[in-house]
Every structure is written in C-alpha cells, then in structure tokens.
Amino acid sequence: MEDLDHTVKFTKLVHSVFENLSTALLLVNYSGDVIAVNPAAESLLGMSFRQLEMQSIYDTFSGSNDFLAAFDDALHSEFNYTKRELELVIPSLLNSLMTDCAFVPIKEENCLLVELHDVDRQLRIAKEENMIAQQSVLKTLIRGFAHEVKNPLGGIRGAAQLLEGELHSEELKEYTDVIIGETTRLQNLVDQMLGPNRPLQKYALNIHSVLERVRQLVLAESDDELKIKRDYDPSLPEVEGDQDQLIQAVLNMVRNAKQALEGKGEITLRTRSKRRAVIAGTLHRLVLSIEIIDNGPGIPEEMLQQIFYPMVTGRADGTGLGLSIAQNLIGQHGGVIECVSKPGETRFTILLPI
What we know:
Elements: H1 2-20, E1 24-29, E2 34-37, H2 39-45, H3 49-52, H4 57-60, H5 65-75, E3 81-90, E4 95-106, E5 111-118, H6 119-166, H7 170-194, E6 203-205, H8 207-220, E7 226-231, E8 239-241, H9 243-261, E9 265-279, E10 282-294, H10 301-304, H11 322-332, E11 336-342, E12 345-353
Parallel strand pairs: 7-9
Antiparallel strand pairs: 1-2, 1-5, 3-4, 4-5, 6-8, 9-10, 10-12, 11-12
Helix pairs in contact: 6-7, 8-9, 9-11
C-alpha cells in the first residue's frame, strides 16, 4: 500500500514538473500523435493541446522539412538527439519559429519527448535588454542636453521680448517675433524629447477602450482610403494603467503607421494574451499583447534598429519623436514595444504585464 501511495505521489510530482517547466515540451508517440503538451509549448506554438491532438505532427508542422526529418531520425535512435536552428513552420497560424530541438526517446512507452527552445525569443530578449540599456543611457544624455539648452533659450526669448517692447517699428518687431517663435518651438521640442513629466495615474481599465479611442481619433482625421480593422480578444482581463498616457502611446504608433501608408491602406489593431513572456529580463506569467499592423512598404533594415531613438525618422517632415515617446510611456507601465517589418507588413507589438 505504501509503495502504491509513493507511486501516486511521484506521478503527481512528475506531472507538476511537466506542467510548470518553462521549456516547451511535447510528448509524441511513434505514429506522430501528440500525447501531451505543457503550457510552455502551448504558449510557444500558439496552439492548445486540444488543437494539437486533433492531427498528426506531420500535418501540424507540414512544411517544416528539417524538423520532421530530425523527428524521423530520432524515432530510429536509441540516444538523445539534438538539432539546432530548425525552422518550425505552423501553417494554421501562418507563422514560423527558429528553434533548437532535443528529442529524447522513451522506449518503454514508445514515444519521444520533444524539447523546443525558441532561438528567436532568446535573441529578442538579448536585443530588448540591450535596447533598454541604451535608452537609459540616452535618456540621461538627453536630460543633461535639455538642461544646457533650455537655460540659454529662455534667456534669448526673454531678451527678445524686452527688445520688442522697446521697438516702435512694426517691421523690426517682425524679427523679434521670429526669435520668440523659434525659441518657443525649440523649448517645446526639448520638452517632447524629455517625455511626460507627470507621474502615472494608474487604475484598472479595459485596453479595448484605449484602442477604440485611438481608432476614432485617427479615422476622424483620415479619409475613406484608410481602413482600420479590429481583431480583439474579448476575454482579456483589465490592465492597470494610465489611460491618457496609453492613448498617447498607441496614438503615436497608429499615426506613424498611417504616415507610412500615406493615408491609403489598412491598419489592424489586434489584442491577445501571452503566457510566460519575458519583459526587461523579468518573466511574467501573463502579459497583454497589442499589435499594430500595417500593409505599407516596410521599414528599411538599417533603420529598424534605431526607430525608437529620438530624432530618427524616415520622413523629411518628421520629428522622430513619436515612437521614442511611445516607448517611454509603455516603459513606465513596465512594458516594451517590439517591431518586425518586411515589405507589405510592419508589426509593432506592445507587451504589458497583467
């Protein structure tokens, strides 16, 4: 009886470990049917166990030729088998992942334990940490620069105002008006570079109310040639945030997409939840994902690494501050903005902890 109790407890322990590991695991029999999958694998693949068990692994990952070849090789191997940088194509999601795969034969049960390590995720985390570190340094430099610039600007503006009061010629006052106007513009530009200067006023809110407000604002200033589609997950819980600042962040990004489209095209606003996501080196059990997708020409590769820096823009009339301010606002909420782009699709993703 004691041996039976011990076996039951051990089985529960193994199941608990399987369920809570951050490594994506699939248990697949020799026929290619998925027997079990842990939450980390469901999150990585964007598919539930119910979806995975309905079809063979050969159908689920059809097109993943190197992965399926490695799977077949592992079926005939008596030892652990590892392949690196295999592209895992998921046709049902129109998506692919670059993964390191380990195959562990379990002969007694006639099945394979498949470990999936997301190479793209590891690169993304490293890139994200580097970007946050660079932005922190950049913010310190900008604050020092702003302090050095705003003081003389204030003096110039004040002197021009005093001079204007002494002048009797309207023609000469036009010159002082230019000086006052330009110093005011530069002061406003420096203030924008510094970002918001008030503390967050957080409370529970529905993120879809934020997106709907942004959608209304952008459509109101656009013509009928711009379409904004909604793809919302209505089951998402509320998130703690400052509504005004979140609206400003998303508005900057949607306006940026509109400008890339030159007012003609399609923007999609999509919301989803993600499990076990890493933001700024911290693992969160659940995060909110907001995607802003446009079908424009895309962002050049050489600019993609710099788009969140101030004064970086691909437009002659742009200030290059919209995305920098958006990243700053989302960062204050403990989140991050990521971007991937190719011709015909640019996707900005906001990740916020829930």
